Amino acid sequence: MKVFSIDFSRLAVLLLPTMLRKQIIMSFLEVVMRELQSIYDGTIPSGFRQRNLYRLNHNGQVFSLRKVLNDAFLRNRDNGFEIIDAEITGDWLITYDESDYRSELIPILTDKDYLKIHDEMVIMKESGNFIVLYPADLTDDDKARMRTIVNYYKLVSRTPIYRIKN
């Protein structure tokens, strides 16, 4: 008997008091438990344990996340996924509003494509902790699935950026 599966016929016999363990009662319990066993077996999808073990053996580390993505999408791993650290680069311009003496210094990037100004705060449009480089031949459904996989395995405090691999 495996630890993760239940044998209801054996369980019924083990829970039966010893004085009631007669052949006719045990046969009746086996017939009743056979139906319960079939219902139980139908609720557990095939491969359920293997999928759970796979999920437990992988985490948000770079090598593990890259392996999960390559396993999910690629047969040939020559041009697979890459995960690199994100670095914020660019020229910074420190400015402030001269008319408001209470204003604080606000850093502004000189490249306007990467800016989103909201309530006097400058926020990067594309900011994250790591970059997922994916092959160019992924469809939109595959990209959505890739994002789901990355969000499942990554740490909560990390934010991914997705870019096509050159």
What general outline do the C-alpha atoms trace? elongated
Number of domains: 3
Distance between the termini: 51 Å
**Secondary-structure element string:** HHHHEEEEEEHE
Instruction: Name the poorly predicted regions.
Output: 113-124
Please report the number of helical segments.
Answer: 5
Strands of the widest sheet, in order across it, are 1-6-7
- Provide the β-strand percentage band: 15-25%
Structural class: alpha+beta
What's the total number of strands? 7
Largest sheet data: 3 strands, mixed
Helix content: 25-40%
Rounded to the nearest angstrom, the radius of gyration is 28 Å
Report mean pLDDT, rounded to a whole number.
Answer: 78
Q: Can you put this structure into words, describing what you see?
A:
By secondary structure, the chain is an alpha+beta fold. It folds into 3 domains: 36 residues; 76 residues; 33 residues, no CATH class. Helix content is 39%, strand content 18%. The strands form 3 sheets. The chain has a 3-stranded mixed β-sheet with strand order 1-6-7, with helices on one face. Strands 2-3 form a two-stranded antiparallel sheet. Strands 4-5 form a two-stranded antiparallel ribbon. Helix 1 packs across helix 2. The longest helix is centred in the N-terminal third of the chain and has 21 residues. About 7% of the residues have low confidence.
